[in-house]
Each structure stands twice: as structure tokens, then as C-alpha cells.
Amino acid sequence: MEAFARTPSDNNISLNFHMNGSHARLNEIPRSNNSHRANNSFSWTGTHVTGYSEVSIWVVVNFIWCGVLFTMGVLTLLAYDRYKRLHTGTNFILCNVICANIFQEVTFLMGAVVVLLRFRAIIPEEWCTVQIFLLLWFSYAANLMISSISVYQCVSVVTPSFHRTLTKPQLIMWFVVPCWALPLPFLFLTAIGSLNEFVARREYLNYCDYSRKDHGLAAYLTTTVFVLLPATVMTLCYAAMMFKMLRLRYLVAPESVVNMEAKCRAMPQQGYAERQTRILLTLFLPSAVFCVAFFTILGVNKTHDNLIYSNPTLFLFVRMIYHTGTPVIASIFAITSRDFREGFRYLLCGRKLRPYPAVTRTHRRRVSHNTELSSFEE
Predict the structure, then answer these.
(1) pTM higher than 0.70 for the full model?
(2) Is 377 contained in some domain?
(3) 11 within some domain
(4) Mind listing the pLDDT tens digit for each residue in 21-40?
(5) Number of folded domains in the chain?
(6) I want to staple 5 with a disulfide (CB 3.0 to 4.6 A). Which of 20, 38, 205, 220 is the partner?
(7) 3-state helix, strand, coil in the chain (%, to 5)
(8) Where are the transmembrane segments (predicted)?
(9) For the domain that residue 331 is a member of, what is the CATH number?
């Protein structure tokens, strides 16, 4: 975890706080290079906490937590690679989400190691620029691809004729590449030039984060473009799928007045729409919980005069939740998938995978509304 503290000593640092609104500036004047060993605690906004030991505990917790998520992500990628039944458009986008999550967790743990190793020293701002840039890029890309899964599911239900013609190169071009590329211009704007918002903070703690201008562009991008906007897109897609499912359910109802031909066309579509809506629900609910918790914490922090920055435990917890929320959502989505569970069972038990049966043209036409393999495998 990149947000950890170093422990300044009273003998080597002179603190001069100048209050500016709800923030405080810390002016550091280096003294001796060896006198910092006399003290192993620091004061965070008036709260006396244990320094190095608390940071060490949180590093261990993050290593365990990120290790579990990393293992789950690797198993998901192996299951997708070896189990042909998982080769669908939704699972392909999910694997890109997991790749972004794995890179994010590695960057996350590298930041924790750097903070632990340089607990007594200033973290180089060059390292902070690289770390925060990569961390936010992978985080933003994963959030966008989570919403991209919902868009793909919505397209497969609302416009099945278009979905059947969608090929794998088109899927990559329309649903994956924009999610990786869109965050880069915004991050370059905040990382270089006059904005330069990625620095090593020295207020109360020494950790890599935005500068004090984080209430401007960087925070706006995080809370709106890459958190609120994907959540809104996911909600709209789920609402559209629910509307289509209810409409199909009405068409196949016994009391419906539509002709038999329309009912026969709607029946296979209804089964597929219901399955895809249930699948998206396992992605929508954890994402909704994450967004509600994220904005609730932001609201409490604003109304209580930056409560997060005055409580070390809460601060570290919030940072860990934000940077590992998307991997948890992706893992829940994979675990709740029946095909993924079967792939995990074959991987972990060491059995030979059952081959996916060949799909003939006649069978493909018959089940075109009930499967997602219509054109993705071609």
C-alpha cells in the first residue's frame, strides 16, 4: 500500500504548522542524520500512535490481502486459457479487468515495500510520479472495463442481431482498447507540466499521493469520470436489460394477445435475457456497494473536516479499500459464474478438462439466442 508514513523525530525535524483552511503545511528543516533513532513514534494531527510497528502491520495485512486477490486473478486467467467454454466476450473483457487488477496489486505492494524500506527517509518524488501514475491508470482502466462488461451484456440482450455479428477484433476495438487508452491523456495532464499533481506528501505523513491540488483535476477525475460515470453507465445498462426482460416475459405470457409467431421468437430470447441479467446482477451489486461506500466516506470526510487524514487506521483502511475494490468485484463475478467454478475445480483437482463439444451450423442457428458463442469463436 502506497499510503504509509515515515516517523520524523523531534531532534531532526522542526515542525512549523501553518493552517490553511482544513489543511496544514509541514515545513521540514533537516538536522542530524543519526538522531532520528532515538524516537519511534510520531504525532498525527495530535494523535499519538506507534509508527514503524503500525506501518509494518498494515504492510503485512496488505500483502496477505493482495496476495489472495493476486492468486484468484491468476487462477481465473488459467481457467479462461484452458477451459474453452469460458471463451466468451464477457469473460474476455473480465480477463482484461483481472490483468489490470494484477498490475495494480503489484504496483500497490511495491509502494508498500518502498514506504517500509524508506520509513525514516523522504520518498523520492520521481518514484511517486511513476507509482501513482501506474496505480491510477490500472485502477481507472479496471473501472471502465467493469462498465464495459455491462455495456456488452446490454448489447447482447437488447440487440441480439448485432451481437451475433460481433467478432473478436471488433470486441477488442470497441470494448477493451478504449478502456486502456482513455485514462492516459488525463493522467499525463496531471503528471507532467504545470499541474504536476503527483508528489510525495510531507504533511503529518510521508507517502505518495496527489499534491494539495488534489481537490482540483485529479480528484474530479477520480470521483466523476472514473467512478461515478462507470457506475451510471452500469445502472443504465442494467435498467435496459431489465426492461427488455420484462417485455419478453410479457410476450411469452399465456394471457398475452400477440400472435404465436411472435411468442416463438420471444421464448428463446427470454431465457437468454434472464440468464444475462442474473449474470450482470452479480457484477452490479458489488459495484453498487463499492460506489455507495466510496461516496459515503468522501461525504463524511468533507463534513467532518477531513476526518480520514486525522485517523491513521481509517486512512489506511480507506486507501486499501479504494485500490482493491475492483479486484474484489472481479473475483466475485468469477466465483459466481458456474463455468468459472467448473474451470477452477478442474484446475485445482488436476483433472483433464472436458473438451467443449463441437457446435454445428444447424445447432448454432437453433441456439443463437441462447449462447454467447455465436460469433466470438469464429
Answers:
(1) yes
(2) no
(3) no
(4) 333 333 333 333 333 333 33
(5) 1
(6) 205
(7) 70, 5, 25
(8) 55-80, 92-117, 137-159, 171-195, 215-241, 279-300, 320-337
(9) 1.20.1070.10
